[in-house]
Each structure stands twice: as C-alpha cells, then as structure tokens.
Amino acid sequence: xxxxxxxxxxxxxxxxxxxxxxxxxxxxxDSNSDSFQRLDPHFQGDRLIGNGVDEDVLRRxxxxxxxxxxxxxNGDNRNIMASQIAKEIFHVQRVVCRIYxxxxxxxxxxxxxxxxxxxxxxxxxxxxxxxxxxxx
Length: 136
Fold this sequence. Notes:
Number of domains: 1
Shape: globular
Strand content: 15-25%
Distance between the termini: 45 Å
CATH architecture: 3-Layer(aba) Sandwich
Number of strands: 6
Helix content: 40-55%
Largest sheet: 6 strands, parallel
CATH superfamily: NAD(P)-binding Rossmann-like Domain
Structural class: alpha/beta
CATH class: Alpha Beta
Radius of gyration: 16 Å
CATH topology: Rossmann fold
Strand order of the largest sheet: 3-2-1-4-5-6
C-alpha cells in the first residue's frame, strides 16, 4: 500500500514507522525538518519538507499513486484542507483526517471525509473509566 502522511509529530511519526516496518510504501510531509527525528531510525520511506496543502508538495510525495492519505498535523484547518485536496483533486480512495474540534469533526464526517477526533475518543474513555470505577 502507498501511504502519504501529513504531519510527523508523535502520531504521524509512530504511524509512519509502523506502516514502513509492515512493508508499506510511506511518504511523510512536514513543514519542520526536525520532526523527522521522531521517525524510527530504520525508516525507509520518503521525507518531504513542505506545506501539505501545496499540490506540488503532494505530487512529490506521490499522492497521485497513493492508496491512502492521512492528515495528522496539529492544525484542524490544515488537516481538513489537505484531506479535501487529496479526496477531491487527487481522488485518493482512503482519506483519514484528525480533527480536534468535535463540531468540525461531525461536519466534515457528514461531508464524506473520514475523521478521527481525539477529543471525543478521550471523553469516551473518561466516561468508561468512571463507569467502570462506579461498578466496582
């Protein structure tokens, strides 16, 4: 599988490293070259410095042949824009976008962009932890 990952923070770097180890073709885009230090030392994929909403940067990352695009920068707007570009312009089959804001999460999910919202996931985990403690 060919993956393009936007964002090489903790989540992006860990995911990229795991997918690379599993034998997938991975390209990681980040605007800060220091972020690539988070990648596993044996990472074989491509590292690209640039803006993930720039179509030329996405092309250099191989988005035209990508099976999936993952947007996990720390900015909801950037993740949303890049995901829309991947989906609408480059017709990437699988696009997943991390969105921290629960309201935006619902809106863009309803528009057909697969979203993951750590805020909602965290709240659900807290509720489950409280319910488990209450049952003991």
